[in-house]
Every structure is written in structure tokens, then in C-alpha cells.
Amino acid sequence: MNAKSFESEEYWTERYNDPQQRRGQLFDWYIISFAKLADIIGPVLLQQFAVDDHDENNATNAILRSSPVALIDVGCGNSPFLTDAAAYVKAHCRSPLINEKVFIGTDFSEVAVLEQSQLLSRNTEVENMQVRFTHADARMTIGAEESSVAVVMDKATLDAVDCSGNEENASAVVSTCVKSLVPGGYFFSLTCRPAARRTETILRGITTSGVQCEHISTVSLNNDPVSPSHLLIFKRSAE
């Protein structure tokens, strides 16, 4: 298969229509679930629901609370990441905001979006929460307005885009993601590429976006020399 196929919506439609691709079952790329990342991402997600006037981060939290969108999973495929994240928030938070803020999964494949929407209708763990899935080309939109999202998650989507060798596409995806963040919002990128290479890709996209972001940290998730996994964390600068 030519890696450039990843640029094609038709490729992903065919992939999710293929019975051999576990259609009808949930699947996490790199076999890394939300549960494996919860200790890192969970506290960041919960920040936007916190109300504590004595918290030294209260000003930032107030901006995050004002975001209408809690989380966007870009290139969600048929992963349970988004609904697991929403269920985590529901289990760890009693703020009324949990039923007001939106959790969005976007994908290039309408087949994946339809499948996720059908599974969502039977998911009682996120009942009464604002969870939805939508079709989108992340080079142009991730399903939300600029400066409206607290957390954006890229879970292997940049890796797929990067396979085509088209740097402009990768930069466009990053630019769309970071522009959607509220000041103080977070962009997470899970990759199996070398951390330095992925950091370079993201920084190039940030430069294109015109948005100020800082690289907070890179977390190595395993020591597998054949297939290493890293979680890169960026934060949009407060304005």
C-alpha cells in the first residue's frame, strides 16, 4: 500500500468498511487506551471543571471553564478514547459543567463516524453528557470554532498524515488543532515516531498557525526500540 493513500478519504472509508479491520469493534491505535494515559491527561481534563478561588491556577482554570468544548479527539476512528475520557470526567467530577461542555470525536471517514454514533447511542456511561462524533478533514477543521476548546488529542493522526511525506498537510493539521484551543488549552500528540521528529513537525505547524504555544514535556510511554511511543504535550500561551 502506498502511504499516500492515507491522504485519501476513500482509503479510510474502505478501511472501516473492511470486515477484516475489526468493524463493529472498538480499536485503539498503538494499543494505548485512555486508561493508560489517564494519569497524565485526566488531571488536565479536570482542570476546566475545577472551581477553587484559592487555587493558584484559578485564572487559567477560569479560561478553560469558559471553553464550550472540553475535548476533541482528532481522527478518532473507531477508538473508545473519547467516550472513555468523558466517562472519566463524569466519574471524577460533580460540576454541573459536565453536562454542558461538549466532547467531540472527528474523523476523515464518515463510516467511522456513523459507527461511533451508533455505539454512543448504547453507551450508558456517558448518558446525559454532550458527546458527539462528526465528519471532518483536520487540515481545515476539527469541528469547533477557533479559541473554543480546552483539550485537543491527536492519537496517531499526525503519524498517518506524516506517512504521505507531505509536510504541508501535517502542518495544516497542527495549525487547525492549536488555533482551536483557548488560551491555556492543551494539545496532546501520541506518536510512535521519534520524539524529536514529531516535535519538529508540531512546532512547524504552530509557526504556521500564528498561535503562541509552548512545549510542556514529552513523556516516553515505553522503551520498545522497535515501536517506541511518546506523548508530546503543548500548551497554548495565555493571552
TrEMBL record:
InterPro entries tied to this protein: Lys/N-term_MeTrsfase_sf (IPR051419), Methyltranfer_dom (IPR025714), SAM-dependent_MTases_sf (IPR029063)
Database matches in CDD domains: AdoMet_MTases
Pfam families xref list: Methyltransf_31 (PF13847)
Residues covered by the Methyltransferase domain: 69-193
Entry-linked SUPFAM superfamilies: S-adenosyl-L-methionine-dependent methyltransferases
Record's keyword annotation contains Iron-sulfur: no
GO biological process: methylation
Superkingdom to which the source organism belongs: Eukaryota
GO molecular-function terms, A-Z: methyltransferase activity
Alphabetic keyword roster: Methyltransferase, Transferase
PANTHER family: SAM-DEPENDENT METHYLTRANSFERASE SUPERFAMILY PROTEIN
Family: Belongs to the methyltransferase superfamily.
The protein, known as: Methyltransferase, putative
Organism listed in the record: Bodo saltans (Flagellated protozoan)
Taxonomic placement: Eukaryota, Discoba, Euglenozoa, Kinetoplastea, Metakinetoplastina
